[in-house]
Amino acid sequence: MQKTSLYQSVYTDLKSNILNKTYPIGTLIPTESELEDIYSVSRTTIRKAISLLVNEGLLSVKQGYGTVVQDFSTTQHLNKITSISETLKQNGHIVTTKNYHIEQISAPDNVRAVLCLSQDEQVYKIDRIICSDDIPTAYITNYLVAAFLPGFSESSEIFSGLYHFLESKFNIVLTTAEETLYAKKASFTESLILNIPSDSPLLCSERISYINDTPFEYTISRFVSDKYKYHIFLQGR
């Protein structure tokens, strides 16, 4: 290993061992001391490599216990605009869409307020269930400003990745987004849609996405809580 990239080489090897399940989810990786011996590098180098993997959501350091392999299969990282479909596909899952429904409607009051629309402006409302390996994982409702999407209803074949569809068909690329996360109990309807017991916990998010500074999308996502997670990377003050 070249001295200038020791930590990167350790990082790459550890990541490979995590992804190929040499270190299975929920287990401890070797201690820092053991990793020093395995890779013949310093503890500082080991810590830099582990830090990269923690930032990616693959590892979690638990003081007094050790470094644990995280369930990364459905972890979405909150440092760029992405979708659940993209996250699942990137981690090797087969993604399908069920109960797809689209309609053009006058924006409801709450949507109009969020998207800064006038009284008579229209939106496309899209409801769908995202399944991972045939298991319902999320129930998604999107509201898209119709003025940006001429002919959308005629060209919108069933898709699992909305953002990719918008980029490829309409050359629309979202530039910024703000997202709010919260937990709640599944309603009777949501429990039927997601095939879970009523009152089961849901991880929910509400996202407002922008094209430059103009609001374009308002999305409500309800995730089966044990099938999806968010990873947030924060830096020091």
Your description of this structure?
- By secondary structure, this protein is α+β, with helices and mostly antiparallel strands.
- The chain has two domains: 3-69, Winged helix-like DNA-binding domain superfamily/Winged helix DNA-binding domain (Arc Repressor Mutant, subunit A, Orthogonal Bundle), CATH 1.10.10.10; 75-231, Chorismate lyase.
- 29% of the residues lie in helices and 34% in strands.
- It is built from eight helices and ten strands.
- It has helices at residues 6-19, 32-39, 43-55, 84-90, 109-115, 152-155, 162-170, 188-194, and strands at 59-62, 66-69, 75-77, 95-106, 122-132, 135-145, 176-185, 201-211, 214-224, 229-231.
- A six-stranded antiparallel sheet has the order 4-5-6-9-8-7. A two-stranded antiparallel ribbon has the order 1-2.
- The longest helix has 14 residues, at 6-19.
- The chain starts with 5 loop residues before the first helix and ends in a 6-residue tail after the last strand.
- The model has no long low-confidence stretch (mean pLDDT 87).
